Amino acid sequence: MTQLIKARQGIITPEVERLAKVEGLTSDELCAKVASGRVVIMKNKQHKNCIAIAVGEGLRTKVNANIGTSPDCVDFADELHKINVAVAAGADTIMELSIGGDVDAFHHQVLEKFTLPIGSVPSYQGGMESIAKHGSVVGMKADDMFEMIERQAKRGIDFMAIHAALNMSIIERLKNQGRITDIVSRGGAFLTGWMFHNEQENPLYAQFDRVLEICKRYDVTLSIGDAIRPGCIEDSLDRAQVQGLIVAGELVQRALEAGVQVMVEGPGHVPLDQIPATILLQKQLCHHVPYYILGNLVTDIAAGYDHIAGAIGATTAAISGADFICYVTPAEHLRLPTAEDVHAGVIATRIATHAADIVTGVKGAREWDLAMAHARKALDWEKQIELSIDPPTARRIRGERNEEGAEACSMCGGFCAMKLVGEHLGKTGGSC
Amino acid sequence: MTQLIKARQGIITPEVERLAKVEGLTSDELCAKVASGRVVIMKNKQHKNCIAIAVGEGLRTKVNANIGTSPDCVDFADELHKINVAVAAGADTIMELSIGGDVDAFHHQVLEKFTLPIGSVPSYQGGMESIAKHGSVVGMKADDMFEMIERQAKRGIDFMAIHAALNMSIIERLKNQGRITDIVSRGGAFLTGWMFHNEQENPLYAQFDRVLEICKRYDVTLSIGDAIRPGCIEDSLDRAQVQGLIVAGELVQRALEAGVQVMVEGPGHVPLDQIPATILLQKQLCHHVPYYILGNLVTDIAAGYDHIAGAIGATTAAISGADFICYVTPAEHLRLPTAEDVHAGVIATRIATHAADIVTGVKGAREWDLAMAHARKALDWEKQIELSIDPPTARRIRGERNEEGAEACSMCGGFCAMKLVGEHLGKTGGSC
Predict the structure, then answer these.
(1) How far is CA B86 from CA B299, B310, B330, B345, B429, in A?
(2) Annotated binding site of B for substrate
(3) Which residues bind [4Fe-4S] cluster (chains A, B) (predicted)?
(4) Least CB–CB distance from B369: residue in A300, A374, A416
(5) What ipTM did this prediction achieve?
């Protein structure tokens, strides 16, 4: 039985009991949210050492970090290092997206080594094997797709992006409509190529029940991949995207009926004013299951700084109801991220999700800022550093130009506003 | 005559004529905006080599970079270097905020060397001189304050933050109300200390006409300093802040009546959901003159990454009507920024203002993203780098892991979605 089915039966699982405490709810409240499909509990039954997390409505907004090799850069030790960096920076989940090297062995290593939920896109490894066997992605057999999903589910992958909400009708609409960037989802592109080449419907759509059957067996959280997401600001909320979302909603309904935990993946490139509508539409069309978005990137021109463009969009998105944010790193659109990029991406995304959690009233969010404000007023630098989003970085920056133990900082020195006013209002000073 | 007075008389100045073209308006349209006070043209008559800029409603959102020494770090060569870095990164204006060393000489040097508008806070240099002469900031004479404003206006400072919207009544209200961070504005703190010590009303408020007279003579754009801005999320939109804004509005009215170009400085720390109301309130209470904000910082806990917290807030603020954004650097709350911090701060803020300009329909904004989207689809890497917000950084990042001239990038290699789909939809590929 999946967490969803158990919740519907009113069974408080150990995971629900623990996670309710973590999120500041009662077990009954969290159980009801899981039963409604508005919250998923991510943990594959086979990922024995996994410490489950809850994602969805009213909970702390979660952050995912993508790692993985590319055909040109296969260095699994470096990818392991990136996971360690992401975890240290506060990522809630990791998506392992390798498309080069021995992925089977690497997945086993990652699942054994890490206790946070691990996600994947099975069609990536499927694509690699197809190239090895048939010389191309499009040579893949439909059965191979399901075999790969089964293989990854069995080994313990906790959540999977499956590009099932893509079919001939959507692609036809896309072609008729025209679009600047066509398809920018890697999984979506594989399948589109496959469908054109084989002149067949997308097997993941046509045989969606096979996907559900596997996810149900292992309690894999199904993430309906956003195959048709826009790749630039100009394409945002076009008919193809909305059509994809309608189909995603239909699949969500079937997943819920089957007792499969499900969420929906979203864009991508969205101008800021379109973010609330984008999130609302997903929630309405997809039974309010969790929305897992990439960014949102609020401009196309920030290559080199897309973690910032992503953080801007993620804040408004999370306030609007997005539940789970895939980070964007400074390397997005340019190259595979380094460990340094991974760190920058996780921290930027956590700033965004926290800024949103303050607004939506997530328990503990505002209290964190309040503690920082008091530490500033008290000129308690050690406390300020401890409370900052990334203490080692705050400590390094402050240390570069400040005497150890100095009361004010080098920005104002003796001109510190908090000190000046504190002397007159009869309180201790602080930092601006 | 100031630009405001000339505009009221229907005179199209050379600055209005040139800036209308820059902003994509007709000269008459821009002239009408200047006449209404909703746009200011920044340029002191004495800053001969200054290339004026326009700030306000419907125009491209502008970015300011603060530089300046502190008592503990006096290195004017380094501050000059920071200005060069800020200009190269695309800052529209510089505020020179030194509180250490020979500020007179440095101001002359900066005004001679740079053609963009230069701002200041005269009470900083005033405070320094008071410490030298009287041993403390609070020993300053009221006349000294006006002498300093006059001295800086005469030398050509284009815009000045004057903390006139602070009086005994506001401070009394602040005390009665209670506030976590009291006063975090450096200028506001000077004056509060001065008022307590001297048991006198704020001279800049009590003798505001003297401020106006000086600003009018040199066509200095007056920035009503946000002396009472909150220093943390929890204090946002408290009664003291709103009281300060009401008084600012009263001063704006007097400035407009006197023919002085005026804008209002704003926060600071604001949770994201309070940003639209904060901007709207300023616009309504202050005759819709330009709003010049610091950030907004949407969380207090991002020390070390406050440029990101600031960029998040700045985007929503600019969409909500903020016209002019003072950058925040990664060093905020920790120490004086380095040149590297200045660069990071300007770029992050420009990403934010551009993302907002896309939404508000500023001419050329959406077109920039569109050009990037086409370059991505065409896999034209040179063009993508040229079009990115900071080409040298984009080039460096891409170069680190990509072969020169390679079509795809190392993120996907041969698995590039744009390539895969392009082959089937009969177009050239692109980058995800």
Answers:
(1) 25, 17, 14, 9, 36
(2) 66, 95, 124, 163, 185-187, 226-229, 265, 292
(3) 409, 412, 416
(4) A300
(5) 0.94
**Residues B136, B120: one domain?**
yes
Residues in a beta bridge with A95:
A66, A119
- Quick check: B108 contacting A, CB < 8 Å? no
Q: Are residues A251 and A143 in the same domain?
A: yes
In this structure, are B373 and B270 located in the same domain? Answer: no
> Residue A127: its chain B contacts at CB < 8 A?
415
Instruction: Name the token pair of A283.
Output: 């929630």
Judge whether B182 lies within some domain.
yes
Tens digit of each residue's pLDDT (9 = 90 or more) over B351-397:
999 999 999 999 999 999 999 999 999 999 999 999 999 999 999 99
Which chain B residues are closer than 8 Å to A196 by Cβ?
424
Within 8 A of B333 by CB-CB distance, chain A residues are 376, 384, 409, 431-432
**DSSP category for residue B297:** B
Domain-located, residue B138: yes
Q: Which domain holds residue B394?
A: 365-425
Tokens 């100045």 belong to residue: B13
User: Domain containing A304 — which CATH number?
Assistant: 3.20.20.540
Phi and psi (nearest 5°) for A221?
-80, 120
In terms of domains, do A224 and A275 share one?
yes
Q: How far is CA A230 from the centre of its chain?
A: 17
Tell whether A412 is in a known binding site.
yes
Residue among A248, A256, A260, A255 at smallest CA distance from A286: A248
The label of the residue with tokens 């004057």 reads B162
Please indicate if any CB of chain A lies within 8 Å of the CB of B207: no
Is the peptide bond prior to B44 cis by the omega test (within 30 degrees of 0)?
no
Report yes or no on A4 lying in a domain.
Answer: no
Select from B311, B330, B360 the last residue of a domain.
B360
Number of folded domains that form chain A: 2
Our measurement of the distance from residue B138's CA atom to the centroid of its chain's CA atoms, rounded to an integer in Å, reads: 28
Among A304, A334, A360, which residue terminates a domain? A360
Is residue A387 within 8 Å of residue A375, measured between CB atoms?
Answer: yes
Q: Determine the 3-state secondary structure of A159 from DSSP.
A: strand
Going by the DSSP 8-state scheme, the letter that residue A73 receives in this structure is B
Question: Are B169 and B109 part of one and the same domain?
Answer: yes
Q: Say if residue A261 is in the same domain as residue A308.
A: yes
> For residue A19, what pLDDT band results from cuts at 50, 70 and 90?
very high
Q: Answer whether A182 touches B (CB < 8 Å).
A: yes
**Does the distance separating the beta carbons of A182 and B421 come in below 8 Å?**
yes
CB atoms within 10 A of CB A14: 8
User: For residue A430, what pLDDT band results from cuts at 50, 70 and 90?
Assistant: very low
Give the DSSP letter string of B210-236. HHHHHHHHHTPEEEE--TT--SSGGGT
Portion 156-175 of A in contact with B at CB < 8 A:
175
Determine the straight-line distance between the first and last CA of chain A, rounded to whole angstroms: 54
In this structure, the answer to whether residues B372 and B394 fall within a common structural domain is: yes
Looking at the domain assignment, is residue A35 inside a domain? no
Of B234, B300, B420, the CB nearest to A193: B420
- Amino acid type, A23: E
* Whether B252 and B398 share a structural domain: no
CA–CA distance from B231 to each of A290, A380, B88, B415 (Å)? Answer: 35, 15, 30, 49
Q: What is the C-alpha to C-alpha distance for residues B345 and B83, in angstroms, rounded to an integer? A: 12
With a CB cutoff of 8 Å and minimum separation 6, the contacts of A230 are A179, A181, A184, A236, A237, A238, A241, A267, A268, A269, A270
- B314-339: b or e for each residue (b if 16 or more CB lie within 10 Å)? bbbbbbbbbbbbbbbbbbbbbbbbbb
> For residue range A135-159, what is the model confidence (pLDDT) as tens digits?
888 999 999 999 999 999 999 999 9
Question: Would you say A416 is a known binding-site residue?
Answer: yes
CA-nearest residue to B171 within chain A is A425
CB pairs under 8 A between A and B: 365
